Amino acid sequence: MKRGLTTAIAALVIAAGTAGCTSGGDGGAPHSGAQRLATAKACADGTYTWLNVSRRPVLTDLAAGTHYAKGDKVSTKDVKEVARYTLSVRSEGAALPEKRVIRDLARHLKVGLYGDGVTMDDASPRTTEYDKQASAEQTAEASGRYVTGRAADLVEADYRYVCGGRTVSSGHVVTWAHVNDMIIFSCGEKPAKNADEGEREAARLGCREGDPARS
To answer: Which residues, in sequence order, are bridge partners of residue 193?
Structure first.
């Protein structure tokens, strides 16, 4: 089985600093689009505080248990979408550039993130818009039912952006560190001790009740 996902859930906090900026509206949050843009430009040197940061494997595609004979090739080519995640940065207050927000989160996690403008192609903002040619293949070691799938390393976080001692923008980010992590396993085998939640979800959905893979 290919195991490319890791699970790490953490709350990361950055010390807030100060920088000159202008703001408008109640509590320093600008109301109009012009005010939001002006605030974002003036506060280019503000600091982020990251809260409720989570990183977890999520199942995106699945082919339920199919019988293969020993020696057959088991492939992830025919998986079907079961869940879809979309890149998003929702914010209140100053309108910060999306790539800039994600890039700062990437620096905290010390991993490339989709939408950071550096790591991945920005043309496909959904986890399931993958290259159909990307797949994995494995030889069945024994006759039985096998499950195949794909998973994504989903990242979510809340942020506050502080400038001049004020929180001028806050919001929520959804992105991912990897997509197309391949899953292949036999329903007749118990899951490995390090099996992640993406693999366990595939077993719950793709294997039958009582199959060792669901234990």
So the answer is: none
pLDDT tens digits, residue range 28-65?
444 455 555 555 565 778 899 999 999 999 999 999 98
What is the per-residue burial (b if ≥16 Cβ within 10 Å, else e) of 165-187? ebbbbbbebbbbbbbbbbbbbbb
Please compute Rg for the chain using Cα positions. Answer: 21
Q: Which of 112-116, 176-180, 183-187 has the lowest mean pLDDT?
A: 176-180
Closest residue by Cα to residue 18 from 160, 162, 161 = 162
Decide: 207 and 214 in contact? Cβ < 8 Å.
yes
Instruction: Give the tokens for residue 153.
Output: 């390393």
Q: What is the number of residues in the chain?
A: 215
- Dihedral of the alpha carbons of 34, 36, 41, 44, in degrees to the nearest 10: 180
- Reading the block at residue 9, the tokens are 């859930």
Query: What pLDDT does 23 receive?
Result: 32
Q: Residue by residue, what is the 3-state secondary structure of 176-214?
A: ECCCCEEEEEECCCCCCCCCCHHHHHHHHHHCCCCCHHH
The H-or-E segment that residue 36 falls in is: helix 33-42
Six token digits for residue 183: 């899953």
Query: What's the number of CA atoms in the CB half-sphere (13 Å) around residue 107?
Result: 12
CB 125 within 8 A of CB 132: no
Reported pTM: 0.75
